Amino acid sequence: MPASSRPTAHLIDGSLYVFRAWHSMPDEFHDAEGHPVNAVHGYTRFLCELLEREKPSHLAVAFDASLTTSFRNAIYPHYKANRELPPPDLERQFVQCRAVTEALGVRVMIDHTYEADDLIGSALWSLRGHGFRSVIVSADKDFGQLLGEHDEQWDFARNTRWGPAGVYERLGVRPEQVADFLALCGDAVDNIPGVPGVGAKTAAALLAHFGSLDDLLDRVEEVAFLRIRGAASCAAKLREHAESARLYRRLTRIALDAPVEASAEALVRQRSGDKIESLSEQLRFGPLTRNRLRALCSAQD
């Protein structure tokens, strides 16, 4: 079935867009109790624009609630240890952003063991079994590993989209190699060190030759004979850090077994609008935002 004839589900990395709004919106918006809501206002504008432009029938927004409680923290305590916890004002706004999402009839996915990436990956995997193609709304490079033949990733802020071929253009590896690639060269954002001395270009070259991390480590003696800079040193580092590399891949690989609703019907948008008025009053949305929210909650597109 060609991509154009497949039903489409939009899976949104909600936390990314809350953080972006937090950093980009001026601190001049306050709710009825006087608390800052700049991130809520920015996130709401983003979600309204997406719904207006795409008119998606099936969608979900995933939020992170596992910065210190993810299963990855149990595997590797240093995972994301470089990140500061959100301040109370932002934590409050995350709750409000989830409320806005639900008020618009959009499915919210959140878990204290699995991250947003895992929830999106598990939903995509389930939807693929129902004949859906997925559009992952995020700029995060980790999602490249999820893209199948008909899927897309969409960086909403830059309005750029790419499929599996775009992953290769950006990282130099195929989607199925992304987790291995990040395990080798590391991911500073998530505090994953990678193999010392192996950068992105070397990691891509190694995977181009060996195909996977497992085959690379099984045939590590061949690395010294490759035409890559510092081949002998690289081979020694890979031998020394082989088990660490395998551990890092457990961190970089997106889980596909997170507890998400398996049916496509669970992602159908429900538009009742019962909570929009009271929520708009509480968050002190302006007339333009209120009208957009009302229109999006009406029965007509």
Automatic annotation (TrEMBL):
Q: What are the alphabetically sorted keywords of the record?
A: DNA-binding, Hydrolase, Nuclease
What is the top-level taxon of the source organism?
A: Bacteria
Annotated GO biological process: DNA replication, Okazaki fragment processing
Task: Please report the stretch or stretches of sequence annotated as the 5'-3' exonuclease domain.
Answer: 5-270
Name by which UniProt lists this protein: Exodeoxyribonuclease IX
Could you cite one Gene Ontology molecular function of this protein? DNA binding
The organism is Dyella dinghuensis
Which positions are tagged coiled coil? none
Signal sequence bounds = none
CDD domains annotated for this entry? H3TH_53EXO, PIN_53EXO
